[in-house]
Amino acid sequence: MNDIREDIAWAKINKDVLKSLENPRKLFWVILLIAIAAVGVAVGCEVYQYTVGLGVANFSNPHVWGLYIATFIFWIGMSHSGTLLSAILHLMHADWRKPIYRFAEAMTTFSLMTAGLFVAVHLGRVWQIYYALPYPNGRQVWPNFQSPLLWDAMAIFTYLSSSILFLYVGMIPDLAICRDNMNPGWRRKLYTVLALGWEGTDRQWRNFRVTYLTIACFLIPLAVSVHSIVASDFAMSQQPGWHITSFPPYFVAGALYSGCAAIITLFIILRYVFKFEEYMTLPILKKIVRLTFAIAMVWTYLNLIEYAAVWYGHDQASKDVLIQKMVGPYAPFWWTMNICGSVVPFIMFFKRFQTHIPVLFAVSLLLNLGMWLERWMIVAPTFSHGYYPWTWDHDQWPSLVQWGIVFGSFGWFTLLFMVFCKVFPSVSMYEVKEMVYHRSQATKKLEATGKLAASGKGAH
Amino acid sequence: MNSGSIKQLKKPLAIRLGEQTVLAKSLVMAEHPFDRRDFLKVLGWGGAAVALSGCGNGSVEDGKETVVSYVETNDYMIPSISVYFNSTCTQCDAGCSITGRIREGRVLKLEGNPDSTINRGKTCGLGQAGVQHHYNPDRVREPLLRTGDSGEAITWEKAYALIAEKMKDVSGEEIAFLSGGVSGHLKVLLGNYLDSFRSKNHFVYEAIAPAVMRAANKKSYGVEMPRFNISKAKVVLSFGADFLGAWVSPVHFSQQYAQFRKGDEDGQRGVLVQIESKMTLTGANADRWLVVRPGTEGILALGIINALGAAGLRLSGDVAGAVKGYDKARVSKDTGVSAEQIDKIVALLKARTPSLVLAGSAAEGYAHGSQNAAAINLLNQVLGNVGKTVEAAEVVPFPQMAPTTGNTAALKKLNDGLAAGKYKVLFSYAANPVFTAPGAMKFKDNLAKAGFKVVFAHYLDETALQADLVLPLDSALEDWGTQVPEYLATCAQINIQQPLMEKLHANTDGKGTRGMGDILLTLLKQRRAEEYKGFADYYAYLRGALLKNKVALGGHKVDDDTFWNETLSKGIIKLEGHVSALSSRSGTAGLSLPSPAAIDAQYPLQLIPSVNASLRDGRHTNQPWLQESPDPLTTIVWDSWVEIHPRKAAELGIEEGDIVEVTGKNGSVKVQAYLFPGIHPDAISIPLGRGHEALGRYAKGYGVNPFQILDAVFDKETGELALHETRVKVSKTGSRVIVVKDEGPVGGRQMGKKIAARLPSDKVKLSEEI
Amino acid sequence: MSVTSLLENYSEFRHFHPVDDVPHNPYKWAMSIDLDACSGCNACSVACYAENNLPVVGREGFAHGQAMHWMRIERYWDEDGREFPDQGAQFLPMMCQQCEAAPCETVCPVGATNHTPDGINSQIYNRCIGSRYCSANCPYKVRYFNWYDYPTTDNVWPAEMNQQLNPDVTVRGKGVMEKCTFCIQRVTVAKNNAKNEGRLIHDGDVQTACQQACPTSAISFGNLVDPESKVYKQWKAQQVELDKDAQIKDKEEGGSELRGYRIFEELRPYPSVMYLERVRESAV
Question: C259 to chain B: which residues are within 8 Å by CB?
Answer without folding.
Answer: 759, 764, 769
